[in-house]
Amino acid sequence: MQWFNSLSRAGKIATLLGSLFALYLCFFGAVFVIGHRPRPAPTVVAVGSPTSTVMPPTATSVPPTHTPLPSTSTPVPPTATPISPTATPRPTNTPTTIQTPTPVPLTATPTLTNTPMLPPTPASTLPPTNTPTPTPTSTPIVEAGTVSKWFVRVYNIDELGKVYINDELITEVNRQRDTSWLNVTEHIVPGQENTLRFTVWNVAEEYTWGFALKGDDTVVWQDVQGQVGFKGANNNDLSKPNQTVYDKILLVDSVGQLSELSGSSYKWYVRLSDIDDMGTAFLNGNKLIDVFLDKGGDSGWVDITEWVLDNHENMLRFTSRNTGGKGIWNITLRRDGKTIWRDEGSTEKGGLVYDRIIYITHQGEVSAVPERTRWYVRIRIADDLSCVYVNGKPFLEMKFGDQERGWVEITRDVKPGQENVLCFSDWNGDRGPGQWDFALMRNDGIIWERTGQDEAGNQMVYDYLVFILPDEEVAGESPNPRWFVRVYDNDDRGAVFVNGEKIFEERTETGDWIDITDQILAGQENKIRFTNWNDRGPAVWRFALRRNNNIVWEDEGRIGEGKENQIVYDKTLTLTPAGELVAP
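Above: the chain sequence. Below: its structure as tokens.
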């Protein structure tokens, strides 16, 4: 240290600073060497497709803090979705429908031909015909009898997500909404097979989805892909505008076991070409493809294999609309390497000019006739409001100015082996005549249709019953009659009583027909009473009784002033045990 003490003060400071700088260089050099050592390659573990996750029945329930998300919340990213190690990998491209009302053919039955297929569009060529197709299976998810309550959740949707149970629309979700958990137990019918269908329709650009099913408190199935607003499904795929991009079906069988349906063992393709002005394809009631003249009028070959259900009857519906000039359509269906059905045509008419249904059978063949009886209804014209009821339930409605929907399937609501009642009605407002055009079709043949008009305003101008009998014949009468009453043009209040029970009381000028069949006691004498109450001034009344489609009694009248705050009309009809009507 003598040499250090011999230095001047300035020398000592310089020496200390140099030493500190050397230590600094040594330290950071060591850090650099350690941080850049070669690292071992990461181990990659394959866990299957991220598109569909089947949760084992023993999975724990979703914590309350993660279940219902507010509609503005960010959807759960796909990386947060647990993947069952035993889940069957699913294809990453997306499916197509099952549904509520499904339309039918109007024109002649299509001929099954082997017409050579059209040359494919350059932008859409078919894959090799020898592409191997995996054998479909039905994957059990929940064992029989283990679930008492069912819940569904729809979230992370771009653009439109839907859930159907037994072809009935349960919920419809637009972009970014979250339904939270919906209790759907009442829609699952015990002792029969129930279908739960989840679909997504894409308008343009990327698409995403998120669906989940819960049995009691356990999430038993969910499927999430993409993250709405950030990244689309299937690696941000942008190639599927105006079509269904997701369609999955789960089955709850007669004993409550849940399983997932798989796709067909064939390869199926459809093509809509030479379309003018708009063509649409549906599979099992769900829209598959839209084709527009101003966007080329040709869909190219579209692979629908993933959405054709194996060992089930599948329904394909094709429609074409013409907005002016000449309407044209050319539609082809191909199975593997062979064209097995084709139909084309043109017309100068406008509106819905083509509406055709064909079926893919359980065996993978194509037929114009379904394997079981199917029923369809249609409303072509409505002025001002036309409705169809099936067994008392409102089913189809069309208002003045609405676009015709074509054939709509009602098979699910028609009970086999029983008498079913269809009601076709039209309400007219206060301007111009009321108009209607109804039709009923069984399989591929129209078996009943009515069209007409009536000048009466602000009332029901058409109301007709059609009976589907247990042997599937159709009639306007039934051995089990339905009874209806009507109260209209009443001042001040008209009332109807059946066997002493008040059915209706109201002041009305334009009353509807009221079904009183359930109040009529079979095999017994029944009393039907009509009254009219007057508050003050003149009084007016009008009543009618109908058996099926025939008015069997009606009465009307009026009185001047003088009878106030009292019943001014009171008449009772007797219906005998044999069904005969006795009027006083």
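The helical segments are 2-5, 9-35, 233-236.
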